[in-house]
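Lab notebook, bench 4. Continuing the backlog of folding jobs that were queued last week. Each job is logged with the same field layout so the records can be merged later without manual cleanup. Today's entry covers GAF domain-containing protein, a 161-residue chain. Filled in by technician R.K.

JOB TYPE: sequence-to-structure
TARGET: GAF domain-containing protein
LENGTH: 161
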Amino acid sequence: MSQTLVDYQLLIEQAKAITADEPDLIANLSNLSALINETLADVNWVGFYLTRAPELLVLGPFQGKVACLRIAFGKGVCGTAAATRQTQLVEDVHQFAGHIACDTASNSEVVVPLIVADQVVGVLDIDSPSVARFSPADAAGLTELGRFIESLDWSQLQPSA
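JOB STATUS: finished
OUTPUT FIELD FOLLOWS
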């Protein structure tokens, strides 16, 4: 369960403010991961995995410990969010079939797919060391934040091998 209530509308307004005058996508995603990390209590990893090849997520800007580098669509919580195009709210990652343990300290997770021009361009991934840290309200607020993140200039993201 959430440790504190988060004002997601305020978080989205802050996200808009810090990205308003910056056209660079990676700079914006870097600051957004820092903003989310500072705003949410009881999280140990916040960041982005970006679609860099067909059906493949590659580590992008993040805050936290060293992370998995590549995740195939359909694998783990991040890959499931990308493949299903649905936000994943996982109370206990150890009960999630196929969970990829990048950090064994993580126990719950929310992953929001980011979709631009009907293509999954990446996911927003947030982990917590606490079981059931995230509520449905958190998932809804983070999904709404994801809709804002989709409005950034993703044309700079060029797929790589």
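OBSERVATION: Helices lie at 8-19, 25-39, 76-84, 136-150.
SIGNED: R.K.
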